[in-house]
């Protein structure tokens, strides 16, 4: 199974920009800030059954499905069999918390069919934040909000 990095066309960038601007993770960023992030995103073709990441692995990227389907599985039960918890299609985003922390993945992501997925590596996102303090400030606020919400759910 071989993955392939693809050239990103103008219409794909436009599609991606619209998806990111609607996503709450990036909703408070302006067009210039989103464009700064777009410069570091890659488009990768994954063959059917390719595992993008495994449960327990260090989080190092965010993914946006462009074409195809990605299945999210979580190990459950005494024998730790994989249980499908989500099936993601075009326009759906997953793994975004890896941009804010490198916590272990809570599930496994696998291509259910040949798929094209935009990928933003956490290292590239950190570089963008270093260059753009306003983005870093927005992301810190978002992380604090999500940590607060998570702490309220756990209580």
Tell me the series of helices and strands, N- to C-terminal: EHHEEEEEEEEHH
CATH architecture: Sandwich
CATH homologous superfamily annotation: Jelly Rolls
End-to-end distance: 44 Å
State Rg: 16 Å
**Portion of residues within helices:** 25-40%
Q: Give the C-level CATH assignment.
A: Mainly Beta
- What structural class is derived from the secondary structure elements? alpha+beta
The quaternary structure here is single chain
- What's the β-strand tally? 9
Mean pLDDT: 87
Q: Within the largest sheet, what's the order of strands? A: 1-2-9-4-7
Tell me the overall shape: globular
Strand share of the residues? 25-35%
Low-confidence stretches: none
CATH topology: Jelly Rolls
Largest sheet: 5 strands, antiparallel
Q: What topology emerges from the helices and strands here?
A:
Blueprint (H helix, E strand, L loop, with lengths): L3 E3 L3 H13 L8 H8 L3 E5 L4 E3 L7 E7 L2 E7 L4 E8 L4 E2 L13 E4 L3 E7 H10 L1 H22 L1
Antiparallel strand pairs: 1-2, 2-9, 3-8, 4-7, 4-9, 5-6, 5-8
Helix pairs in contact: 1-2, 3-4
């Amino acid at each position: 199974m071989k993955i392939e990095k693809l050239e990103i066309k103008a219409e794909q960038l436009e599609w991606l920009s619209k998806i990111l601007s609607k996503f709450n993770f990036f909703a408070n960023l302006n067009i210039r800030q989103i464009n700064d992030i777009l410069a570091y995103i890659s488009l990768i073709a994954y063959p059917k059954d390719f595992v993008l990441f495994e449960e327990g692995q260090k989080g190092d990227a965010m993914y946006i499905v462009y074409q195809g389907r990605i299945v999210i599985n979580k190990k459950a039960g005494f024998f730790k069999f994989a249980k499908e918890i989500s099936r993601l299609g075009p326009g759906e985003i997953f793994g975004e918390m890896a941009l804010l922390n490198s916590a272990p993945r809570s599930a496994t992501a696998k291509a259910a069919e040949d798929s094209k997925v935009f990928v933003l590596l956490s290292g590239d996102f950190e570089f963008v934040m270093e260059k753009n303090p306003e983005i870093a400030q927005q992301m810190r606020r978002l992380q604090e909000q999500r940590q607060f919400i998570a702490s309220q759910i756990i209580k």
